[in-house]
Specification:
The complex is a heterodimer of chains A (265) and B (642). With 265 residues, chain A is α/β, with parallel strands linked by helices. Chain A is built from nine helices and ten strands. By secondary structure, chain B is mainly alpha-helical. Chain B folds into four domains: 70 residues, no CATH class; 196 residues, no CATH class; 55 residues, no CATH class; 189 residues, MetI-like (MetI-like fold, Orthogonal Bundle). Classes of the chains: A alpha/beta (265), B mainly alpha (642). At the A-B interface, strand 6, helix 2 and helix 4 of A face helix 25 and helix 26 of B.
Chain lengths: 265, 642
């Protein structure tokens, strides 16, 4: 089983001018089993993006290590797909060519990759948009392309860095359903960073609330809403009293953390 | 057809100017109307407001052309084709009487005699006060003062009307009468005189390189022309009249002898060198003034009054006879008008250095004609045409001779029977030296192509080497730090400052200029590619890493396309700078190219050719830029939308 394991993960940034050290993350330990959906929430500056970048392999930890299916992660790789906040699409390519990118880099057979691209465009709801230049798409559609581009590579883990942060409320809800559908359909491990408590509750089968200075996992939740979201409408779930309780609890938690930081500063 | 247009360029210009005026006025009307219709379309500052508006372009272009036509005397030539010829005849008369006028206050405020008397008196006064007393004995000083006052008496005698010889009085009187007679004839107008057949057969104004036809082609012109002949004769008579009063005859001889006597004493040798020099210089100064006064050119003021009045009469008769010509000249011939000098009449002012649009077009057609045998092109080379280019020459240019040298074996030796059989090595050498006939391909030819070729080759090389280096400098610490100081050191030096050095090393042929332009293009391409490469969004790079791309693949598929907008902008700038540098380099040295044409035109003051080359450069520069703009919108439509 391709489990993602973080073992005593530490990250200390050193300011090259002053030599001062900042502990961005300290002693992070968790295991993400295959097929789990993890949402990470926390006040700004708590190291959520740093954690994600380390798992993606963009930066290396200063202490501890991350393994995926037993292999230590040292650099980026196709088995860990990334979706960024702004899509990070290649605007000089069409939608199909963007989705095709990973396959082309691997020199996959043209026929085969064309079929794969077609299939994934269908799944994310972009049928017939293959030849459209990406700069003509709306924000939501751009994120669908980013999802398809990531999924076509068949990664073990999908890492999402505030993927829906820049979308309007309606589009956002549709995309949240899409993420849940994809999770269900593909059975992929998904780790999603978000600053929206509601989104974290809706999507997170597991939910980490992180605390800053040093960045650490403050509290972990196991939530039923993601499973329910596959069947019920997300809006109904939001009106659930249990949902509201947890939301208030987490909001208070984060609020206190922010207060603490302000007080210290 | 072209010849016909060339001969009738004034008529064509008349039509064109009329059309331009109509275009100018109607475009203003259309513009006004459109402005009213679209007044509420968009708020001020919204870029949408600038869209469209072709009528203002028409308005601007026609205004510019009208101004050009006007200040180049194009309007004057189009609507008053005979005016210049008539003005030339008037200028002839003015030139003829100018020797008389020069002696009169009409032209120069004072009588020439008055000026002479005033100046000589001043100088005598100065001499008197500056006498080097140490150099002359007491007696000599007394003698010199006496000489100076005697010289003054010469002037006094000449200025006294009572002393004017009867002969001179007579001559002046007759001359004044003749001048008045001339005025009367001028006022009477052209009676029964008409232009000669020879005059009418002259090439018209501006159709050849003789600027304005000399012989009169209108009745008024003929009148002025015939008057001019008599005026010339009168002027010749005037300058010969002398005023030598009899009272001066003995005085002149006396002064001359006394000066000579003083000179002899100076040569007796009892003074040292400095004193001798001072004496000589002083005596020479006195003698110079004396000699100026002994040739009878000072007249009593009253004696010239008659001539002065007669010339004034002639002047006003001239102005009357000129009629509307004066108004036309003031309105349509801005500048100094037409001046006769030596054997021709020339346009002065902006008419001189600003050629008429029609003349520029005619010069351009002549230059653009590919038929170099029939005087087309420039210096035996067409402006822009094609020719057969032997492939062998191209191969020889690319392939160096040493390729044959490094082949194994020896070059052929002559055999015992006196024959030489070339072997493989010899054949390769022949290929490298262009001695093999490989057929020919059609190729562009001409001055414009030579200039374009230099720019395009240099630009191509600059892109080929500059873009990869710039991209690597954008992503690699080694490339950035290693090459940055080198490029930043040579880049700020103006290309023309390199030119003398580069042209010395590479010669004045194409290679020198291409290398110079390559240096320019290379630096621009490196900087733009580097900016583009280092400006790639981190998330795109990270995304491609996560999608499994290798470093090389990222460079080719992400960083390069991402840098494309900057690279294309760099090319656009590089073309402009290369073009500017090239023309200057061609002016420094070379035998072909647009800059070369302008340089030759400059040395012979061929203003039309200068303007033609300027226009060619402008149009080519504009064409390059339009092509690049089109390429940019076609290749990077996502620019500003990413």
């Amino acid at each position: 089983m391709a489990n993602l394991i973080c073992d005593n993960l530490c990250m200390t940034f050193t300011n090259p001018q002053t030599g001062g050290k900042v502990e961005a993350l300290k002693d992070i330990n968790f295991t993400l089993k295959k097929g789990e959906l993890l949402a990470v929430l926390g006040p700004s500056g708590c190291g959520k993006t740093t954690l994600l970048n380390m798992i993606a392999g963009f930066i290396n930890p200063t202490g501890g290590h991350i393994t995926l299916g037993g292999d230590v992660i040292k650099s980026p790789g196709v088995e860990r797909g990334m979706v960024f906040q702004q899509g990070a699409l290649f605007e000089w390519l069409t939608v199909a060519k963007n989705v095709d990118f990973g396959l082309r880099m691997k020199s996959t057979d043209k026929q085969e990759s064309a079929e794969l691209v077609e299939k994934w465009l269908d799944i994310v709801g972009l049928q017939g948009f293959g030849d459209t230049p990406t700069y003509q798409l709306s924000g939501g559609m751009q994120q669908r392309v980013a999802l398809a581009r990531c999924l076509v590579n068949n990664p073990d883990v999908i890492l999402m860095d505030e993927p829906l942060g820049a979308l309007d409320a309606l589009t956002r809800e549709k995309m949240q359903s899409l993420v849940l559908d994809l999770w269900k359909e593909t059975g992929k491990t998904i780790m999603i960073i978000t600053h929206s408590v509601e989104e974290a509750l809706l999507l997170g089968e597991r939910l980490f609330v992180m605390a800053p200075r040093p960045g650490r996992i403050h509290k972990e939740y196991n939530l039923p809403f993601a499973e329910r979201g596959l069947k019920e409408s997300l809006r109904e779930i939001k009106q659930d009293s249990h949902f509201a309780d947890v939301r208030e609890e987490i909001l208070t938690m984060i609020w206190n953390m922010e207060e603490e930081i302000m007080g210290r500063a | 057809m072209l010849d016909w247009m060339s001969d009738n360029r004034a008529a064509i210009a008349a039509i064109v100017i009329f059309a331009l005026a109509i275009m100018f006025i109607s475009s203003i009307f259309i513009g006004k109307k459109q402005a009213k219709l679209s007044a509420k379309d968009a708020v001020f500052g919204d870029p949408e407001r600038t869209k469209g508006g072709w009528y203002w372009s028409v308005c601007g272009i026609s205004a510019l052309l009208l101004v050009w036509f006007y200040f180049s005397w194009g309007v004057g030539r189009a609507y008053f084709p005979n005016a210049a010829n008539e003005m030339c005849q008037v200028a002839k008369l003015e030139e003829a009487i100018s020797p008389i006028k020069a002696a009169l206050p009409l032209e120069s405020r004072y009588y020439k005699s008055t000026t002479l008397v005033a100046r000589n008196s001043d100088q005598l006064m100065q001499l008197q006060s500056q006498m080097p007393t140490a150099a002359f004995s007491q007696n000599e000083q007394t003698e010199l003062y006496a000489l100076i006052s005697e010289t003054r008496r010469l002037m006094a005698n000449s200025s006294n009307p009572a002393n004017l010889s009867l002969d001179a009085q007579d001559q002046l009187q007759v001359l004044a009468q003749d001048l008045v007679g001339l005025s009367t004839r001028l006022a009477a107008g052209p009676q029964g005189i008409s232009p000669s057949a020879e005059a009418l057969a002259q090439p018209r104004w501006g159709t050849t390189h003789i600027e304005i036809p000399m012989l009169p082609i209108t009745e008024r012109g003929v009148l002025f022309d015939t008057i001019t002949l008599d005026a010339q004769e009168l002027a010749a008579r005037f300058v010969k009249i002398r005023n030598n009063p009899s009272q001066n005859d003995a005085l002149i001889v006396d002064i001359k002898n006394r000066i000579d006597a003083l000179k002899i004493v100076t040569t007796s040798g009892k003074f040292d060198e400095d004193v001798t020099t001072a004496r000589k210089a002083y005596l020479k100064a006195v003698e110079r003034i004396f000699k100026r006064l002994d040739d009878g050119i000072i007249f009593p003021a009253q004696s010239l009054e008659g001539i002065n009045t007669a010339i004034a009469t002639l002047d006003s008769a001239k102005n009357d006879a000129r009629g509307q010509l004066g108004t036309i000249e003031a309105l349509f011939f801005p500048g100094d008008g037409i001046v006769k000098s030596r054997t021709q009449c020339t346009e002065q002012g902006s008419g001189r250095w600003l050629p008429k649009p029609t003349d520029v077009v005619a010069t351009f057609w002549k230059l653009a004609s590919p038929n170099t045998e029939a005087d087309g092109g420039f210096k035996g080379i067409p402006l822009f045409w094609w020719k057969w280019l032997p492939v062998g020459d191209v191969v020889a240019m690319i392939m160096p001779d040493w390729i044959a040298d490094i082949l194994p074996g020896e070059y052929a030796r002559h055999a015992a029977d006196g024959t030489v059989t070339p072997n493989f090595k010899d054949k390769v050498l022949a290929l490298a030296q262009g001695d093999v006939n490989l057929g020919a391909v059609p190729m562009f030819d001409g001055h414009v192509w030579d200039s374009m070729f230099r720019v395009l080759v240099a630009l191509g090389l600059g892109i080929m080497f500059g873009v990869p280096l710039g991209i690597y400098m954008g992503v690699s610490k080694f490339f950035k730090s290693f090459f940055d100081p080198l490029i930043e050191l040579y880049r700020p030096v103006p290309p023309l400052a390199w030119a003398p050095l580069i042209l010395t090393i590479f010669g004045i042929q194409d290679d020198g200029k291409i290398f110079l332009l390559f240096m320019v293009a290379f630096a621009i391409m490196v900087i733009s590619a580097r900016t583009g490469a280092s400006g790639t969004q981190l998330s795109k790079i990270r995304a491609s890493h996560s999608l499994g791309a290798t470093n090389g693949q990222i460079l080719r598929n992400v960083i390069l396309p991402n840098a494309l907008p900057e690279i294309l902008t760099g090319i656009r700038i590089a073309i402009g700078v290369c073009w500017g540098t090239l023309v200057a380099a061609e002016m420094l040295a070379g035998t072909t190219g647009v800059g070369f044409i302008e340089n030759v035109a400059r040395t012979v003051s061929d203003y039309e050719l200068i303007w033609v080359t300027i226009l060619i450069m402008g149009i080519l520069g504009l064409a390059f830029d339009l092509i690049m703009r089109w390429v940019i919108t076609k290749t990077i439509p996502w620019r500003g939308k990413g």
